Amino acid sequence: MGHGHSHGHSDNSEPTPQALASRKRANWILAAILVPVGVLTLVAMMVMWPSGSREGITFSSPYQAAPGVTFDTGRIQSVVVESCTQTNQSNTGQPTTGQNNTGQSNQSGGSQCTFAFTEPDKGGDVVKVVINPDVAMSHGVDVGDSIRYLNLSAVQGANAGSGAPAYVFVDFVRSIPIALLAVLYAAVVIAVARWRGFRALLGLVGAYFVLVSFILPGLVEGKPPLLLALVGSTVIMIGVLYFAHGFSARTSTALLGTIFGLSITALLAAWATDAANLAGVGNHDASTLVNMSPQISISGIILCGLIISGLGVLNDVTITQSSAVWELYELAPDTTARKLFSSAMRIGRDHIASTVYTIAFAYAGAALPILIIVMLYDRPLAEALTSAELSEEVIRTLVGSIGLVLAIPVTTLIAVLVVKATGMKRPAAAGAPTVTADELKDTGSLAAAAAVVSSGPQENHDAGARLDAPGRPARPGSRRAQREAERRGDTGDGAS
């Protein structure tokens, strides 16, 4: 009667020899695939490990000073705007005649420059730092700002009446706000995700190590960019997934889906980089790298970037899909593989929609200055999207999205096959009812899965038991509530 389908399987019984054999076979299949992949990846990483040599690379770092020149830091005491020729005024920290603390100049004629009277952190007299025009116009400087400036006072002739500034603004000092944000981020992650969040942060540190010690030096030395990106990304994903989520069948399933998505993304990126002639034309940083060494390939760097940029979102969708399949199965262990796949894919489709928006808006936000410039050029939309300025961002969005979209059904299929083969079920209380995929669908697949995925092991089982347990009130608006209302004749008397 009603909508409660209680199934008479004994979850507390010992698994049968057939079930144990099936579980062992599934784990062996996962190991047979992932162990060779891991070994091959590590071997390739050792063979391709960069030497660290910078022979043949010529560049002049803007952060290297000439003899007698230093980079100093200080805090701004006052800001003035005055004639650019008055660079050798008194360094008393007070505006010279004709200026005021608001930065407005009372003098007429001549070019006007912004100066910041700055107290050096190392001590000493207040110095007069000239602020770059682009900084003064776009952001400006305020009293209390910490800045880094170039100290030319010790260089002969720098202050000998030539009109050249002795102290030149270089950058803002951002150590404190960035450190505060980093601490806040770590605290929030650990407070919400606890031990798993802490392990994820450590995994992020490991991923950064692979990036700066293997991928970036390899690109500088001219290693094959496609292989470099695939090997580095696979190592990162193996470390991050197992370290953050532990060694389990569901993590191995997510890793298989991630590797598949990486392979698709790499193939598409290799084709798109060549077919669309992505060469970094018009990019100042690309031009700088080209002039440093003939070994550095800008198209190779772009190809590697296309692969790496989608790692985070790809990892997100694969681990979520794998977990969703396991939780759906544990709520409805008698569901057929076909129905389990369909239920999990309903969750996957919602995830696809949200992640596509995530990628598109993330890249759009990073490219806002370019988007504004292109908009002001008033070019046709199709021409703007395929231009040198925007084509790389567009292709990055499309390649990354295709890879993660295809990874979702593949991960779901692998997870269904593995979970059905292993027959993993959490122990249930004697006589506790279970639900089928159809009943779970009635509660809303995405909402139900989100609820169970975010809860712990015991809470997941309890949630499954409460979905349709006898003697509990029916969920408002559910099919069970409607049928109970029909049996009562809508009299509200509670008769069955």
From TrEMBL:
Taxonomy, superkingdom: Bacteria
Biased composition (Basic and acidic residues): 481-496
Pfam families according to UniProt: YibE_F
Chain ranges passing through the membrane: 28-49, 172-193, 200-220, 226-244, 253-272, 292-314, 355-377, 397-419
Keywords: Membrane, Transmembrane, Transmembrane helix
Classification via InterPro entries: YibE_F (IPR012507)
Identification of the protein by name: YibE/F family protein
PANTHER family in the cross-refs: MEMBRANE PROTEIN, MEMBRANE PROTEIN-RELATED
Location of the region described as Disordered in the Swiss-Prot/TrEMBL record: 86-111, 451-496
Protein source organism: Paenarthrobacter aurescens
